[in-house]
Design a protein that fits this description.
Elements: H1 3-26, H2 36-47, E1 51-56, E2 60-65, E3 74-81, H3 108-124, E4 131-138, H4 149-154, E5 165-175, E6 179-181, E7 184-185, E8 189-198, E9 202-203, H5 213-231, E10 238-247, E11 253-254, E12 257-266, H6 269-289, E13 293-302, E14 306-307, H7 309-323, E15 328-330, H8 342-345, E16 350-358, H9 378-396
Helix pairs in contact: 1-3, 1-9, 3-9, 5-6, 7-9
Length: 399
C-alpha cells in the first residue's frame, strides 16, 4: 500500500478530528463516570461506518474493522484512554472545559481523537488490509489502582477476533513529530499504600498518659525512607513517597490516630516483594516501639509495561521512514509513571509509545496533570500516521 495515500487521507480529515478533540475537551468526564464521551465516540465510529460495541467493561467502546480474509488473519488492537482529571482548567484556550474542576490535563482527549482518526483513515482502505483492527477506547485509566483495562479484557476486548498485537500512544513532553519509548520494561509498577497508626489520646500536658500516634508516625515516615537506601543495590531503582498525613484533633491533645497514604514505584517483581516485606516490618516494629499499633494496607496497582522486543524493533523500522531516525527516541531508563495499558502488555505482545507534543505552540506547557496543560494539536496528525503505519507494516510481516 502506498503510504502517501494514507497521509493524504489524514490531511483530508485533520480539521474534522481537531474539532472533535475540542468537543471532547470542553466536556471532560472523570474516571468511572464517562457517559457523554463514549456516546460521542460510538456515534462517530458508527458513521464511518465500522462495527461498534458499547459498554464494554462498563463504559468502554470497541470498534472493529475486518480486513481481507478476516477469519484467518492477524488482529491488531490500538488503544486510547478517555477519562479526565479532577483539575480546574487554567489553560486559557477558547475551548476550555465547561465542567468546573474537571479537565483533560493528561491528553486523553487527544488520544481519543487520534484513535478515531486512525479508524476513519484505515476504514477507507479496509479492502486492502491484510487483517483486522480493533480500536479500544478505554475508561478509568486514572482510577488507580483499579483502572479500566482489566474490566474491558474481562468483557472480551481481546477476543472475537483474538488480538495478536496491541499498541498505544500517550502524549508527552518531547518535540512534536517525535516518539519516545523503551523496549522491554518501559515504566514502573504503581502501587498504593495506606498506613494507620493507632495510639491512645491524652492531655497534651501529660504525654506519659497517652501513646502519641504523631510521634510514632513521624518515625515511621523516616524508617520508610530508609527501605530504599538500605535494602536495594546501587543498580536497583524504586520510589516510596508518603503523599498525605492526617492526624490529631486539637493543639493540646495527644493524637490517638494518624493515617498516612503514599505510592510505591518499582520496576521488578523481586523489588516489589522486598519492599512489601520491609514496609510491613518497619510499620509494625516502629509503631510498637512507641506503644502504638501499626497497620499496613498495601494495594497492588498497575503493573509495569513490557514492550515486546521484536515488536519494538518493528516499530523502529516502520516509523523511521516517516518520522526520521532523529525523531525515534529510545529511552535509556524506564519512567516512574503508572499506566494500566500494562495489563494488556501482559496478555499480548505490545508496544506503548510516548508521542511528542512540545513545540512553540505550547512553549513548555506540556506538563501532564497540570491545570495549564496545553497540547500541540499538530500532534494529532502524527499520532494518526504513526498508528496507521504500524498497523499496515505489521500486516506485511509474518507472525
Amino acid at each position: 500500500m502506498d503510504f502517501k495515500l494514507i497521509e493524504q487521507a489524514v490531511d483530508e480529515i485533520f480539521d474534522e478530528i481537531v474539532a472533535f478533540r475540542r468537543e471532547l475537551h470542553m466536556t471532560p468526564e472523570v474516571s468511572d463516570f464517562e457517559v457523554i464521551t463514549p456516546q460521542k465516540i460510538a456515534e462517530r465510529l458508527k458513521k464511518i461506518p465500522i462495527e461498534v460495541k458499547e459498554k464494554v467493561g462498563r463504559n468502554g467502546v470497541v470498534g472493529l474493522i475486518r480486513g481481507k480474509n478476516s477469519e484467518n488473519s492477524k488482529t491488531i488492537l490500538l488503544r486510547a484512554d478517555m477519562d479526565a482529571l479532577p483539575i480546574n482548567e487554567e489553560s486559557g484556550v477558547e475551548f476550555s472545559s465547561k465542567i468546573p474542576n474537571v479537565m483533560h490535563a493528561c491528553g486523553h482527549d487527544m488520544h481519543c481523537a487520534m484513535l478515531l482518526g486512525a479508524a476513519t483513515v484505515l476504514s477507507k482502505f479496509r479492502d486492502e488490509l491484510d487483517g483486522n483492527v480493533k480500536f479500544m477506547f478505554q475508561p478509568a485509566e486514572e482510577l488507580a489502582p483499579t483502572g479500566g483495562s482489566r474490566a474491558m479484557m474481562a468483557d472480551g476486548v481481546l477476543e472475537n477476533p483474538k488480538v495478536d498485537e496491541a499498541y498505544a500512544l500517550h502524549v508527552y513532553g518531547v518535540p512534536t513529530g517525535a516518539i519516545a519509548f523503551r523496549p522491554g520494561v518501559a515504566n514502573s509498577r504503581s502501587d498504593r499504600i495506606k498506613i494507620e497508626i493507632i495510639g491512645k489520646s491524652a492531655h497534651g500536658s501529660l504525654p506519659n498518659e497517652g501513646k502519641d500516634a504523631i510521634v510514632a508516625a513521624a518515625n515511621v515516615i523516616t524508617g520508610v525512607q530508609s527501605i530504599i537506601s538500605r535494602n536495594l543495590g546501587p543498580s536497583e531503582n524504586a520510589v516510596i513517597t508518603i503523599g498525605t498525613i492526617k492526624g490529631g484533633d486539637r493543639y493540646n491533645v495527644i493524637s490517638e490516630t494518624v493515617t498516612l497514604e503514599g505510592t510505591v514505584r518499582t520496576f521488578s517483581d523481586k523489588v516489589v516483594n522486598l519492599i512489601k516485606e520491609r514496609l510491613a516490618i518497619v510499620v509494625n516494629d516502629i509503631a510498637s516501639a512507641y506503644g502504638c499499633i501499626g497497620k499496613l494496607n498495601y494495594y497492588d496497582g498497575y503493573d509495569f509495561i513490557y514492550n515486546d522486543l521484536k515488536l519494538s524493533q518493528n516499530v523502529i523500522d516502520s516509523l523511521t521512514p516517516i518520522l526520521g531516525k532523529e525523531n525515534i527516541i529510545i529511552q535509556e531508563n524506564p519512567l516512574p509513571t503508572g499506566e494500566d495499558f500494562s495489563f494488556v502488555t501482559k496478555k499480548v505482545p505490545s508496544v506503548f509509545m510516548w508521542l511528542g507534543t512540545e513545540s512553540e505552540v505550547n512553549n513548555g506547557r506540556c506538563i501532564l496533570h497540570n491545570s495549564k496543560f496545553l497540547a500541540d494539536e499538530n500532534t494529532i496528525k502524527y499520532g494518526i500516521k504513526v498508528m496507521c503505519k504500524v498497523v499496515i507494516d505489521s500486516f506485511s510481516k509474518k507472525s
